[in-house]
Amino acid sequence: MEIEKKMMKGENRKKTVEAMGGGEEQQQENHDKKRKKQLGGLRTMPFILANEVCDRFATTGFHANMIMYLTQQLNLPMVQASNTLTNFSGTAGFTPLIGALIADSFAGRFWTITIGSMIYELGLVSIMISAVLPSLHPPPCPSQMNCEAASSSQLWVLYISLFLTTLGTGGIRPCVVTFAADQLDVSRSKVTSRKFFNWYYFCMGAATLTALTVVVYVQDNVGWGWGLGIPTVAMGVSIVVFIVGSHLYVKLKPGGSPLTRLAQVIVAAARKRRSALPSDPAMLYENKELDADLCVQGKLMHTEQFKWFDKAAVVTGREPTGSAGGPPLNLWRLATIHRVEELKCIIRMLPIWAAGILLIAASSHQHSFTILQARTMDRHLSSSFQIPPASLSIFGSLTILLGVVLYERLFVPLARRFTGNPAGITCLQRMGVGFSVNILATLTASFVEIRRKKVAAAHHLLDSPTAVVPISVFWLVPQFCIHGLAEVFMAVGHLEFLYDQSPESMRSTAAALYWVANSIGNYTGTIIVTLVHKYSGREGNWLPGRDLNRGRLEYYYWLVSGIQAVNLVYYVICALFYTYKPVSEIMADLNEGAESERLAEEQEPPPPGNIRASHNVRDVELVGGGRT
């Protein structure tokens, strides 16, 4: 049905040109171009970034200290609480894939973000109410010994609240960054792309920093009702601000289900597996009208990799090609070369994408364990003020904020002198640096834990889980700073890679892959923690239930450092063999002569098979097929 509509649309357009001499259509196209120029741009950024800043503020304020809520308010054991948060974080990584498919298939990014934000707000309201009502959490247990854990009904209220926030996240995460990039059309410039993702991450870091200082302090010193109420209000404000700017946004049309298109290419190639490929790739099937919504900003050029899939675009003469007067095109038997190249792009990206899974698995529980460490250390800044344990993450956020600025202002100009690359280094090289630096963060965490337990042993506090060990909490700062530096390289580079190297019509889906990697990594991290807790022995367990002083947390850190080292080797091999996608940017001449030539050409019969015939389109290769 989609194909027939597009073919009918093309026929009607041609008839209009023939009947009216092309004058009205030219006027309409000029009007559309003028309106398109009036939409998007920098003026939309305050609305979109305000939405994302409020969303990140709410998300961070909600999740940053949740390990304390589960262990102190719901009286859950350390491993169970950490696994609960990690499992829901893992689920929150899968829902963006669903949201991305909905956005790319039929709903569009604007409505997906709006509905997702509303669902997320319902989750925040639910957990705020559960924190306020005494019947929805167990009695307090200040000693943390023989505590009454939350009942099944109380846990179900928690799970439903977390599920709503997880579901809402699926509509927000994959669409906001790509929706913002659509307003600036960053795909046309590598420098614009790098700057956008750097400053986007800077804004997110500022929101995170504010949440870690304000919200966490309120949760620890005022109460959980207020501490969860502030993020709830912030999320509500973000929804209102985002909707207010709706009339200014560029809203690209959904291109149909990307999974369906990928499946069609695979099925068509399998059906013609015995067909011979033409010696000239220009003979492969192309249909510009059918793919018009898929390549607004540029078409994918043919590549020599994975040539078996090219068979999906081989015209054998036995299947309809959708030509005028003929039977409709069946994309399960014949796919356009652009759709074949979309599949190739995704296949090329998967090994690089997969490298992020073990990185997340290695660090998935580190934040929770570090907060529990901080709770046992001296957190006094003065005799009357203590730093909340979760607020230590501000040092990581500060490092990200400072690191993004220094990366843009100092590192890029310096690296450009040696590499000649306008971006300084490629996004793959940037990710590789992030992988390496993150190993140092985990090793640093292990050495700090050794030091903390030595001080606890010297003061005979190993059997006192609630006692304060006389060692400054600032010993934990270096690992936060190193981890923040790793994020400047890895996280920003990963987002830029997925957006830049994905097909234009699948960018929400590609952004969702970032969160899917986080999801799989979180689940893998839960498996690692569960196995370590189960098999590291009853005496001297690496990850004990409540008394961290009797654990061997440093052994766990060494284990995940080794996992990251192996993952780094795998990533380097994948990056060395990665081939960047070649793209042609479609640029129509706007002068009167070129427009007249186009209108005259459209009145002529289309070439057989609709194979790459165009006079008003200049192919400009943006990214070559060279290796990193």
General description of the model:
- Its main location: membrane.
- The chain crosses the membrane at residues 118-136, 156-179, 199-218, 224-250, 345-365, 385-407, 512-535, 555-578.
- Residues 1-17 have a biased composition (Basic and acidic residues).
- Belongs to the major facilitator superfamily. Proton-dependent oligopeptide transporter (POT/PTR) (TC 2.A.17) family.
- With 628 residues, the chain is mostly helical.
- The chain is globular.
- The model is unreliable at 13-22 and 585-628 (pLDDT under 50).
- The chain is built from 18 helices and five strands.
How would you sum up this structure in a few lines?
Helices cover 64% and strands 3% of the residues. With 628 residues, the chain is mainly α. The strands form two sheets. The protein has a three-stranded antiparallel beta sheet with strand order 1-4-5.
**Percent range for β-strand residues:** under 5%
Q: Based on CA inertia axes, which overall geometry fits?
A: globular
Average predicted confidence as pLDDT: 77
Low-confidence runs of at least 5 consecutive residues: 13-22, 585-628
Record field, number of beta strands: 5
Query: How widely separated are the two ends?
Result: 42 Å
Characterize the main sheet: 3 strands, antiparallel
Radius of gyration: 27 Å
Structural class: mainly alpha
Which features would summarize this protein structure in a list?
628 residues, mainly alpha, three-stranded antiparallel sheet, two-stranded parallel sheet, 18 helices, 5 strands, disordered C terminus
